[in-house]
Amino acid sequence: MFTMLSDLLSRPAPKDAVALIDRNRIVTADALEEESRRVAQGLLELGVGEGDRVALWLPNVTAWLACLFACARIGAIVVSVNTRFRSTELQDILGRSGARVLVFWPGFRGIDFEGILNDIDPASLHALSAIVAYTEGTELLPTRIVGHAPVRYETLAESTPFTSDHGNPDSGVILFTTSGTTRAPKFVLHKQRAIAGHAGHVARAFGFEAADARILLTIPLCGTFGLTAGLAALAAGRPLVMMPTFDARNAAELISRYAVTHFPAAGDIVAQLLALSSEARPYPSVRLVIGVRTGQAAPAQARGLRLVGVYGSSEVQAMVSRHSESATPEQRELGGGVLVAREARVRARDAASGGILPHGQNGELEFRMPSQMVGYFGDEDATRAATTEDGYVRSGDLGYTVEGGGFVFLARIGDALRLSGFLVNPLEIEAVLNEHPAIETSQVVGVESARGTEAVTFVVLKADAKLDERAVIAHCARRIARFKVPARVFAVDAFPVTHSANGTKIQKAKLREMAVRMMMSETENAGIYSSKTS
Prior knowledge:
By secondary structure, the protein is α/β, with parallel strands linked by helices. Among the domains are: 8-17 and 28-192, Rossmann fold; 416-533, 2-Layer Sandwich (GMP Synthetase, Chain A, domain 3). The chain has 16 helices and 30 strands. The protein has an 8-stranded mixed β-sheet, sandwiched between helices. A 7-stranded antiparallel β-sheet has the order 15-16-17-22-21-19-18. A 4-stranded mixed β-sheet has the order 2-1-11-10, with helices on both faces. Helix 2 crosses helix 3 and helix 7 crosses helix 8 (224-236). It is globular and about 70 Å long. The two termini are 44 Å apart.
């Protein structure tokens, strides 16, 4: 059982064992440990101490992991920042977290990171005392950024190695930012024991420990999904093939070159890889794709790829459960599965009565597991609201438990619909809609009207198809209960999305706003629909 992050690099292994393949650069476990110790000393010399925060605004490069291990050694806390974030988001995160140091890559993808930083109000960066610039090659650095002369990352990595550990298993080690579209994100704090221990559980549960295992990481380390997968590969002592950003052709080439066996991926990434080739088995080395979108498991299996659904959140970490590879494709597409840690527990609670529900009945999922958060950094009220008296984390997710310690995730509680008094999972309606020959994909939301909550559907049509709203509604009416049938169907080119570190999420709140706006604009419905949404 791993209790410290440093345990992942000091596990018994040959000194020349490959830990990372960073754009074809081979990094051994010994070299990664050495770099982390040097960076730790460099951070100490910048004034970083126990409990201080170090913000990492980097893509998937070796330096990201070296900084994480360095902070763990000196007892500092990484603030994980998505490279997609811009000045408003960065100002909020750096200011509220009290980050002492920011590490970033000025030249990454030609993005004007310097300009983004200089758009920030310096007064909000009250704790920031140093900026570290990661470079590759001979990139020129500006003389000052938000009032600080940048320090080259290479300077930190040339420091004398730090030879001790100030951290301990219960030291805070990383802050994830929660994703959200309507309010400032919360900071989810995890301790070393939870992060390191979970890496070991995931390595075992997903087969990363196999002698020939090779893990491809295209999802960002700054999110819990990417970090969990990356650290699990290190915990298993198997090569982690990393990409700074996802590109389907490059990913396919890396899979072939390094005989990748395991591929943690979001549904849109799977779709792009499958679209690249019409071969019956385009990626023969891949044994398991971790992460799946509805409707993908069966066609992927027909082409030789076995996809399994998982579950996770910033509060309990990613990949905390998995479905069996022997399950049907339809079962494997569901979120949830069996918990990977033997001591972990899940239950479902009824919102109305507050009672714990028996297997098979829908309620809010609650988890108690070794991978769960310490709490929300700087927000004791939110921490109390998210945890129960007996130590479970309230997920805000709708689902049900099954025999054997497993569960099924259905939807976010806020996305579930109460129609005619019944709690309805929108996926039930969407599955029927997606069977219509004109519809490529759909999203269902609830809108409050004078008639009560009604289901409203947005659809993306197949190429050259036209929307016949009456026909789509009739299609649903023949297949599902009347109270579940959508009141309206609207066609859109694409759904509004949020690009988070853990994947692309459809913005249901924006769809609800769109539905109200579109329905209120129609004369025949004027005054019926309110702006209050369910």
